[in-house]
Amino acid sequence: MPAEKEQTEELMSRAARGDDGARQALLQRYRDRLRRMVAVRLDARLVARLDPSDVVQEALLEAARRLPDYLRERPVAFYPWLRRLAWEHLVKLHQRHIARRKRSVARELPLPDDSLDALARQLAPGTSPSQRLVRQEVCERVRRALDALPEVDREVLVLRYLEQLDTAEAAAVLGVSEGAVKMRHRRALERLGGLLVEPPSEDNP
């Protein structure tokens, strides 16, 4: 990660000096990460109509237009800035294609099994890869427990495990300090673990 950040800094410096090649490389550098974020957040009802790559391409076109201003001001780290543009495009698409509801976009996550498995391993580290049925059961329990968490706890786990953001990136996205992210992350894992140990009953949520 440090090497990646150093390379990004170098590309930003060159792009700010007018290097078009560096500018293009900078915009394409995080395409795969943006696509993963969009795929995780895209409502399942829109999958047949919208390709995450198209959403990312629209975000990158906007980023290209706004890049000179960003390079002058650098209000946040580059990837969180780029992610915010993609997120705004995704929210607009949800609003355009789906009737607005009280639940946020974050609550419509498809929750991919591979990311759930990474989180499940944190909570059930003794489960070996060969115990597939046990892992599938744990993943399903994690899925239900995540949906029962408060939004603030759920979101920090989504950022860390589904989007695979590091602490600094998650802090920039949430607009809080890295210390606050660590505290929220720890608290969310504890609450999630509690729900998995003692899942709420239908009569007493």
Named at the architecture level, the CATH assignment of the largest domain is Orthogonal Bundle
Number of individual domains: 2
Strand portion, in percent? under 5%
Number of strands: 0
Q: N-to-C terminal Cα separation, in Å?
A: 41 Å
Can you count the helices?
Answer: 10
Unreliable residue runs: 101-109
CATH topology (fold) name of the largest domain: Rna Polymerase Sigma Factor, Chain: A
Radius of gyration: 19 Å
Q: What value does the average pLDDT take?
A: 81
Return the string of H and E elements: HHHHHHHHHH
CATH superfamily (homologous) name of the largest domain: RNA polymerase sigma factor, region 2, helix turn helix motif
Q: Provide the structure class.
A: mainly alpha
Major sheet characteristics: none
Shape: globular
Percent in helix:
over 70%
- Per CATH, the class of the largest domain reads Mainly Alpha
